[in-house]
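In response to a reviewer's request, we include the raw inputs and outputs for one of the modeled complexes. The two entities were modeled together in a single run.
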Amino acid sequence: MPEQEKQQTPAPEPEFDFDVAQQEIGAALAEGGGAQAISPTIVIPPVVIAAVMGLLLALVYGVTKEPIAESKRLDKQQKLAQVMPGFDNDPLTTEVELSDTVLGYAGMSGADLSGIGMTSSVNTGYSGYFSIVFGITKDNTIERVRILESFETPGLGSKASEPFFIDQFEGRPAEPNFKVAKDNGDIDAITGATITSRAVCDALNAGLEAYQAAGGAAALAPAAPETTAEGKLVNPLLEKEAEPVTEAETAAPAGTVVETTDQSAGETDAEPADVTEDTEESEDTAETAEPEPPAGEETDGQ
Amino acid sequence: MASRSVAAEFVKGVWKENPVLRLLLGMCPVLAVTTSVENGLGMGLAATFVLICSNVVVSLLRSIIPARMRIPCFIVVIAAFVTIVDLVLQGFFFELSKSLGVFVPLIVVNCIILGRAEAFAYKNGPFYSMIDAMGMGVGFTLALMTVGTVRELLGNGTWLGFAVPPFTLHPWIIMILPPGAFITLGLLVAGMNWLTQQQEAKRRQAAREARLAKGGTA
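The model returned the following structure tokens for the whole complex.
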């Protein structure tokens, strides 16, 4: 062993000497290699190729940008239609952000809330990002779950979208306590893809937690009572802030209310319109009192 | 490149110089993607498309690409085409793009494409480069599908998604997992080598017999 050490220690010295290496490189460059390396004939073609390819990419990006957004929107719409109980509105127009990763959508049947659709994403998939879409019925059970976007291993994690796994969530109470069997839950994980199975449960739990924290279906329905209720919550806060913002903020949700109720029922039409005017007029005065009566009325209706 | 027929250039990529089973190139997608035949087919076709585009473009640009800067140039061309394929798939073939998922961006690191640009397209005209790309692409796709077939049949009991009765009884999960890919690929490469050796031996035997028949020495 000592002999080996003796042999090893002197070795590194000649192995790499920075000054020597620099001199060698300098010499090599001086010999002509360097002159060639900087010559325009070697620099220009790659630059031109990169520029042309960059332009081409910009062009293709521009052409495909709209179709990509459109197909993603259609996919979401289609998936929402699969998971939400019967509705006749366009849920995408009712989008409400419940948390950074959870979006809620209301399904309306006429003027009534028929069910809730939600998307939820987590980063605990086998390949990170993993998002699902699911529907909640009026009696607070899971209508259906579908995978929205995932990058799971094909043949293993990708099986999460197959009926044998994803259908087991149907009809269960919408409570954020889904766990795979391995974690003492009652969801059968996919063989060889426990992490993916867990991610589905995680996403579902995260979505349901945000849903419950927001106050359940009432927080999501786009109908007049909910938005006015929201307005009721928002306005006192905004009063403390700058006044002009209040005007814009109150106008925006009210506008959407009118839109959605227009489609569903003429009866409710008048009320939110009134509310809108009221809140806009009575900015400086006590606003909280105004929206309350319609809010009470309509929640009763539901 | 003695016999320079179009057919020979094409068949070369499928059998004699099959990129996966003979040249052992592009192992990463072969191991990662082939959990099912469908994935293999999708990856194979997408890679073939990029291969054809990049081979033709590299071949057309070969006179202006300086030798010392060729690799960066190749990569830029390949990466651009991969991105184009990805965007077009997402925009106009959304379902297909979802099933191919992350594999499309991975084509850029497929060394078959860089390999063909370097070994063939940079030295040959656009037409032959295209034929070479098609042959290599088909060879790659067939190899992916072969590995995919073995893995999907044994690991999942299906072929292209259809249940195949005797295999459905007891699927071996390991065949779908990464070890299954290595085992399958190893056996296939071994089988391919054995076949080539057999052929070579036969050819030598025939040549020796011919010499003997002429009265020469063995």
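As requested, we also summarize the result in words. Chain B touches chain A at residues 33, 35-36, 39, 61, 64-66, 68-69, 72-73, 76-77, 79-80, 83-84, 87-88, 90-92, 94, 98, 101-102, 151-152, 155-156, 173, 176-177 (CB under 8 Å). The two ends of chain B are 29 Å apart (CA to CA).
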